[in-house]
Amino acid sequence: MTAEAADKPKRTVPEDWQPFPRAGYTPTYYIAGTLLRLFYWLYGRWTIIGLENVPRTGGVLLAGNHVSLLDPPMVGGALFGYRRVRFMAKIELWSTRIGHFVMDRIMSYPVKRGTADRPTIRRTLEWLAQGDAIAIFPEGERSEDGKLQPAQPGIALLVQKSGVPVIPVAIVGTYEMWPRGRKKLKRVPLKIAFGQPILFPQGATREQITSLLMERIAELLTANGQPTDPPVGAPVPHSADGGD
After folding, report:
1. Which residues make Cβ contacts (< 8 Å) with residue 43, sequence separation at least 6?
2. pLDDT tens for each residue of 138-171
């Protein structure tokens, strides 16, 4: 790499980022969804459980555990052809031209981790009010050891402001296939389970929301072959809840 290339500033996402028109109806979206389903079926020998728990219409949040870069595309692949879903993802994924192109067209949108990122929160609430499905990872970033981490407060804020149901999602096997820090994939069977919707009562506190949600995710993981205890303690604050 030349000194000139090394000094070249990294491409950043414009402050006035706007959703790509008809993002869930582009050739890129259909090609990506088809390839993801083929990968998880052929290589991951995946099992999808409880898809009927995800409503086909109306605003809904899908919240899953996060242990691998394989998690967000696995959720997207499982829902492909069933329901379109928007993904809140870290803004760094838009830092290259190809990343910007693909992420815009597969219904992902950027969140600035480490900040409150009010524009993204507002955008999310608007989509939920319009009846969209939004997928986020409450832990905020991938688990280092595969264990369930406490939820960040962003998920509770979205629940309180929107009043939409939350679908707990358990992802099993991706940590063994491709954990953080490993360069190569290991072929293991995968499983993704969608739990019963949780409708929190008005007045539920952030602590009540995050605690119950992570308990349900832990129960779902345990029921699907990965014994898991709910996380203990408060999360280390770092962002709204985009996947890492």
Report:
1. 185, 187
2. 999 999 999 999 999 999 999 999 999 999 999 9
Give, for 172, the enclosing helix (H) or strand (E): strand 166-172
Report the alpha-carbon distance of residue 235 to residue 95 in Å, rounded: 27
All structural domains of the chain, each given as residue ranges with its CATH number in brackets, are 24-223 (3.40.1130.10)
Low-confidence ranges of the chain (pLDDT < 50): 1-9, 238-239
* H or E stretch at 49: strand 47-49
Asked whether the beta carbons of 222 and 148 are under 8 A apart, the reply is no
- From the number of C-beta atoms within 10 Å of its C-beta (0-12, 13-18, 19+), residue 3 rates as exposed
- Whole-angstrom CA distances from 73 to 17, 27, 69, 77, 206 are 22, 17, 8, 6, 28
Largest CA distance in the chain: 58
Average pLDDT, the chain: 91
Q: ∠ at Cα 100 (96, 102), nearest 5°?
A: 120
pLDDT tens per residue across span 208-224: 999 999 999 999 999 99
SS3 38: helix
